[in-house]
Structure formats: C-alpha cells, structure tokens
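new request in #modeling-help
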Amino acid sequence: MTSIGISLIRLERITCSYGGEPVLVNVDLDVTGDQFTGVVGPSGSGKTTLLRVLLGSNRPIAGSVHRSRGVRVGYVPQVETVNWSFPVTVGECVRMANTRGRRLPWANRNELREAEQVLDRLGIAELAGRHIRDLSGGQQQRMFIARALLGRPQLLLMDEPTSGVDVHTRHEILHLLADLHDDGLAVILTTHDLNGIASHLPHLVCLNTEVIGHGPPAAVLTPPILERTFGAKMEVLEHAGMPIVIDNFTHPHNVVPFRKHA
Amino acid sequence: MDELLRPFEFEFFRNGLIVATLAGALCGMVGVYVVLKGMSYIGHGLSHAIFGGFAASALLGVNFVLGAGVWGVASALMINGVTRRRVIGADAAIGVITTASFALGLALFAIFGRRGRSFDAALFGSILGVSIADVLAIGAVTLLVGVLVFFGYRQLLFTTFDPEVAEASGVRTARVDALLMLVLAAAILATMQVLGVTLIAATLVIPATVARMLTSSFSRMLILATAIGAFTGFVGMNLSYHLDVQSGPTIVLVGATIFAAVFVVSGARARYRLAAIIIPPT
C-alpha cells in the first residue's frame, strides 16, 4: 500500500452496455492511490458497472482503461448478492482468495498465519471457525474486507457496504475504511446514503449513466447536481459544516421524470 | 448370512457392485458443485441429453462411450455457453436442448428399433452386462475427476461461491465452469449403465443435500457427499439383487431414505442449511 497520489487506474470516455441501452456513457475517472471516493446515484445509474470496470470484470464497449503496471484491486460485493447459506466458515471464505501458487486444497502454515493476522487486524479473528451466516452485518463486511486485504490491494472497491445496516454498523464500517485509507489504501465505494455516508467522504462522484459531477461533498451535493443525478428535486441544508440533503417531495407532480434532465 | 453373500459369487454382481459404489462416490462428489451452483436442473437435463447420443451410437454401431460421450460433451458445452451468455433464461434453454435430445433418442429407437445395449437399462439402469471394461472405465473416470477436484479445489470453490470476485482475482471462471460441465458429462456417462438416465439426477442431488444438512464446512461436505454416495450405491446394489428390482430405482430409494432419516433426526438448524440448495444463489 505505497501508492499515494499515483494514478492506479484511469478511465477515458468509457461506455458500457449489457446488450441494450448503455449503462455508462463517456465516463472519465482517474483513480489515484490516495483516493477515498463515494459513487452516488439512483438504482440503475451504473454504479456497480463502474466498479466492475475498475475491477476488470466488465469490458467497456468504447473508451479505454489504463491500469498502472501490476495494480492490485480488492473487491467487496454487495452482501445481498451473497449466498449466506453456502457451506463455508469465515476462515475458509477469507482464505478462498489464495488461488495462486499453491495447488493443494488445504492451507499451509503461512497462509493460516497470514489470514489470522488480517482477521485479527479487522477484529474478527475469534470468528474464523463460524459459519458465514452467523455474522452480524458489520462482521460480514469485515470478513469480505479481510478477504480483499489478503491479496494486498492498493485499491479497495466496495459495492453498497452500508446497505441494510444499522447506524452503529454504518459508523463502524466508515471508521474502519477511514483507518484503512489512513494506512495508504485507496477506497471507492458506492452508496445510496447521501447523509449517512456520502457527505462524510472527502470526494464524491455523482453518476447517472454519465458523470454528473465530482468533487468534495460541499461542491457536489447541490440541488442542481442532485436533481440531475436522482431525477428528483432535493434541498440541501448545512449542519456543522456538512451538507444535509432533504427530499423535496410534497406532491407527485413535484417529481421530475427520471433521466429527463440528464 | 450366506444369503447376503450369495450374489458375490456372480461376476456380473461383483462388477455391478464396484460400478455402483464408484458411481455413487463420483456423483456424490460432483453433486456438491452441482447443487451449490443451482445446477441440479442441468444435471437432470444433461443425463436426458446423453440418451440421444446413446440411441444414435447404438443405431450407428459406434462405440457407446465414444458416441454418447461426444454427444454429452457437446450438450454440456452448449448448455454452459447458453447459461453464461444469459440471453434467454438458462432453464428454458436447458429444457429445449436436453428434452429435444432425449426425444430424438426415443424417436430413433421408435423408427429403427432397439439395437445394441438395452433400452430399458439406459433409462432405468441395470447391472446385467456390466463388464470388466465398464468397471475399468468408471474407475478411470472416478480417479480423473478425483484428481481434478483435488488440484482444482481452490478454483472450484471460489468460482462456485463467488464467480465475479474469483474472475477478478485471476481465476479463469469460464474455464472452470466448462471443466465442471465436462466432469458432469463424464460422471453421467460413466454411471448411465447402472443408474439409468432418468434417475442419475437423484444421485447427484441426494448425497450433497444430505451432507449439507450434516455440516457447514465445504471440505467436510465434499468428503461426506462422496462417502454417502458410495454407501448408497453399495447398499442399493445389494438390495437391488435381493429385492429383484432394477438397480437405478433401488439406489435412488436408498438415498431418499437416508435423506428422510437425516431430515427428521438432524433438527431445524440442519434443515435451515438446505436453503443453500433449495434456493440457489441468483
């Protein structure tokens, strides 16, 4: 994790499609080693696709992706997409990422020690023998972060890490990510939560198929940008120097047709 | 006791017993991946698809293993391609490909008559006519699949649990999925004689399902499913002789009885684990 300020991945005018209408159009993004960015946007705005492009699992139909040589990217999926009844323990799940080199099914002493160190760092070492379903929301996120960290990433991508978790867990995850970022890990996460997550991050990208705006929360969380991003009128207040976004939903006619402004 | 040991005097029974035990172990091992990937329907469909190859090879006088094998591999790769592309629903595509192949097999037999290996044996399984060559063939397939699962354990587990992250982590998931389909086709082909195409799916699903109720660890599930499959094949084949019922149905009924017993005895928590199998990941 010694890639502060260096460009890790650069996207130039990328366009992505799953066969129909494009889900991303002409998106430019420069991901640097010191980045801690939230990608905000409504459902279907292309947030997850953007993460997949950065991860390398989705190939754009146009534009170019420049990766710095040997860049390592970790990924934490949306917990809703995980089969929590799958028969694996926390330890097995974390060590699953070790697919290179060793061919034997069981982990050797080094692998076990390395996994234990990562789990210990994230405060869930004592849960290694538990089934993954027996974890709380925060512990689930920590487990997948541990799996990602085992690959020694320079960039951590997280898809909706605070979706469906309580306030305490949300704070817990934010603090953990802030600590990891302080240790030199670049973090990009997607979120719907404008007040609970987005406004606390140093940098935001507002996405609705295309990049509507990017910059610090105070510059991006503005009524015009939010209206273009979410297709709904919103008001922004300020509290203790932080923007607070409020739905301006008073009557159905007040709702701006989705994407009409894009 | 003498009565129980009497069938062992016959070579055809000894061969059938070895084949059934190996077939059970093989299907139990492969079945773990099949059920956890929500591919039970593919297993069922593929066994029917291979019947088309069986019929064609019987009529053309081509070696059964070669004819049905080529047909099975082609069907498996076609199903895998359709499933990964996600253009139309995988279940619909599998339904079309496999039932069409099965129907073709039935039509070929209806038009040209039944030749070569027994038609009923292909559908429902039989130990009659199991030669030493069949024993060696299934032994080789079981050994090969065992080696593949052993050395591909990590890639197979990662791809089964989390294909997207596995791909991003450098696992060639397309290759792993194709390999799994080929292994499945090989397992079905090797066990078709004893179990019959209509019943193979049960031997893929039941041992894995029982093992899932007994453990929450993937490695233990793999070992347990293999052992349960082998046990089911061994006991089912013995019962098949003594009850004078075809081997396929007997083996499946033994498996179903074990499932029912474990389901009743193991309690609510074990039953809850079945969610991984009954509701496959989307």
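bot summary: The radius of gyration of chain B is 18 Å.
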